Amino acid sequence: MRAEFIETKSRNYRPRRTTGDRVQEAVLMLGEAQGRLLNHGETPWASITFAGSRHELMLDFAGPEAVAAGERLIAALPDHEFAIPGQLVADATVSSVHHVMHPAPRMIVTATLLLLEDA
């Protein structure tokens, strides 16, 4: 019996992006990549006719340019058309905003998105 070396091709492992990852990326890009994600909570939900998830994201905008980008995010979020595969964004709102001006401008924004699974 002879031992042979069998060469296998190694694949680069790339983790699959979840709906939560896609929501997170879309909101951060809407904030012009100026915000830092502090928290992202996802809660699944279902009714008789729909199923989906509720996402709550807390973003920190530090510095004058970042705060300006955060203010543009607040203005654009409710009417923004998101492109998330397999999902429809039924509602997108800003649930809270906390401004601090001293010692440096800073704004913490909490956004809530309600997603429906696209059939």
Provide the fold topology:
Elements: H1 19-30, E1 36-46, E2 51-62, H2 64-76, E3 87-100, E4 106-117
Antiparallel strand pairs: 1-2, 2-4, 3-4
The helix tally amounts to 2
Helix/strand order = HEEHEE
The parts where pLDDT drops under 50 for at least 5 residues are none
Beta-strand percent range: 35-45%
What is the third-level CATH name, the topology?
A: STM4215-like
Spell out the key features of this protein.
2 helices; STM4215-like; 119 residues; flat; alpha+beta
Structural write-up:
This protein is of the alpha+beta class and 119 residues long. The chain has one domain (19-117): 2-Layer Sandwich (STM4215-like), CATH 3.30.2000.30. Helices cover 21% and strands 41% of the residues. It has helices at 19-30, 64-76, and strands at 36-46, 51-62, 87-100, 106-117. It has a 4-stranded antiparallel β-sheet with strand order 1-2-4-3. A hairpin with a 5-residue loop joins strand 3 (87-100) and strand 4. The mean pLDDT is 91.
